[in-house]
């Protein structure tokens, strides 16, 4: 890699910081950009700049948007009596693609993982509890991933919601155990939403 000019090496290093991109892919991407006309390459630079400049976090659900509240929270056609709790933005996009859900969302921005230093306080759980207390919420759907961390997060939230008198449900187990929601087939996610099960206190 030292055969490349310093500016190319810098670009490759930045690409390698991205999820799923190794040295070879970073090298191909850098070479691709180098071959593009200046105007096209700058469009990528401007797009990255605009994302960082204009995208903000919704103060209600912690989704990302160019407006606050986001387009989902401010949509009067959505069912505000139901909140679907998800770990990350990609999960929201997966559920929206099904066309089977018309409620609101709450993005946790992760999951509980003590080994990684992620405690309940590191997530947006308190914001969820405040929404349930302050609004006429009838159901909370826990759509965290069906793995150890996702289940632990769902169980913790369920315990926090227990005294608030709201119905708490979990996605149906049509989704394979250990799976990530963002990678699931749209039809499977649709069935999991429709067949969600009520969580009960142990």
UniProtKB/TrEMBL annotation:
Keywords: DNA damage, DNA recombination, DNA repair, Metal-binding, Zinc, Zinc-finger. Transmembrane segments: none annotated. Signal peptide: none annotated. InterPro entries: DNA_Rcmb_RecR, Rcmb_RecR, Rcmb_RecR_Znf, TOPRIM_dom, TOPRIM_RecR. A zinc finger (C4-type) spans 58-73. This is Recombination protein RecR. Belongs to the RecR family. The keyword Signal does not apply. GO terms for biological process: DNA recombination; DNA repair. HAMAP family: RecR. Residues 81-176 form the Toprim domain. It comes from the Bacteria. It comes from Candidatus Jettenia ecosi. May play a role in DNA repair. It seems to be involved in an RecBC-independent recombinational process of DNA repair. It may act with RecF and RecO. SMART domains: TOPRIM (SM00493). GO terms for molecular function: DNA binding; zinc ion binding.
């Amino acid at each position: 890699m030292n055969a490349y000019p310093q500016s190319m090496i810098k670009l490759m290093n930045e690409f390698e910081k991205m999820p799923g991109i190794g040295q070879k892919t970073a090298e191909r991407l850098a070479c691709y950009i180098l071959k593009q006309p200046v105007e096209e390459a700058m469009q990528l630079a401007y797009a990255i700049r605009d994302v960082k400049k204009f995208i903000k976090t919704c103060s209600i659900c912690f989704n990302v948007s160019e407006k606050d509240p986001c387009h989902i929270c401010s949509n009067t056609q959505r069912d505000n009596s139901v909140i679907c709790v998800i770990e990350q933005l990609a999960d929201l996009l997966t559920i929206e693609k099904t066309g089977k859900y018309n409620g609101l969302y709450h993005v946790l921005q992760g999951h509980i993982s003590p080994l990684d230093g992620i405690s309940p306080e590191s997530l947006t759980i308190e914001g969820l509890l405040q929404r349930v207390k302050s609004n006429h919420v009838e159901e909370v759907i826990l759509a965290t991933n069906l793995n150890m961390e996702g289940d632990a997060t769902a169980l913790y939230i369920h315990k926090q919601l227990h005294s608030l008198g709201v119905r708490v449900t979990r996605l149906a187990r049509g989704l394979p155990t250990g799976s990530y929601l963002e990678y699931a087939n749209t039809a499977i996610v649709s069935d999991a939403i429709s067949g969600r099960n009520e969580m009960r206190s142990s």
